[in-house]
């Protein structure tokens, strides 16, 4: 075994071979990513009265019995409705070694659909955080916020990252890494408990700065890649003033001013800049894999897409306002394949971009 850090693809495969990650169906092509494993929906969804955590000493199955309203067979496809809460058992389960913990997060395309998807576990007291040595099943809690979605077994809405020990870079280490390889371009390196990034509301060409989800749209079929008309689901946000006003309850797709670089020996996770940076929350999909924005992997100029939801009050968002931060971690070893290098990576080299389910505008 190697030292502390995020486990790369080859070590994730070793965990599968050793039985530490159990599969109810064979691995799909591309399911193992450079620094994470995609998780697959099982064949039933439970419609819940409310979101929940199992809590210490309790199992998710016990909580399902407490809060289940009805169950839905996903085998032939089923619609998960906007504003409802569902729990879906996943095809993967864990028998982690002591000293190996895990963290889950929504995949990029899931977050861009405002599809709140979080992992829950037996005995869990936090969403998306899985304790070292956990043995048990995995579940996805799914709450469509803006659009109803058509789902089927085997679809991959969230992903899991494994880590051994603690390998987060402190600000001094992050500053040194930026000086050595350049972690951002297009704006200053704001380093404070991670690498800060800001919103771009002054595009180099045109005045399109983002998209706002329309409130009364149709169903998105998650298997129809490139098959939906953006105009049916999104309103374009344009400005030539370098600012927009976020509406309470609305969901926006924006983009970072800076292009981001994740070197091959590192991984990153997006986190809020401050607990109360303003009346809005940035991001659902928080994993950045090794090689994102890396020149040699075809990622020059890759910017971070921001999934923004405004809370109680209208909020003025200004160009260049710092809205989030990237927390960098060392990899336990360099992955055998980098993001965007010979694998299906939908967002390498990206700018402002909707999820892969929509036709290019």
TrEMBL record:
Keyword Magnesium among record annotations: no
Pfam families membership: DCD_C (PF22569), DCD_N (PF06559)
Location of the 2'-deoxycytidine 5'-triphosphate deaminase N-terminal domain: 5-166
Keyword Hydrolase: yes
InterPro entries, per database record: DCD_C, DCD_N, dUTPase-like_sf, dUTPase_trimeric
Coiled-coil portions: none
Segments forming domain 2'-deoxycytidine 5'-triphosphate deaminase C-terminal: 171-358
Source domain of life: Bacteria
Keywords, sorted A to Z: Hydrolase, Nucleotide metabolism
SUPFAM superfamilies found in the cross-reference section: dUTPase-like
Biological process annotations from GO: 2'-deoxyribonucleotide metabolic process
Gene Ontology MF terms: dCTP deaminase activity
NCBIfam families per UniProt: PRK07559.1 (NF005734)
Protein name: dCTP deaminase
Species the sequence originates in: Rhodovulum steppense
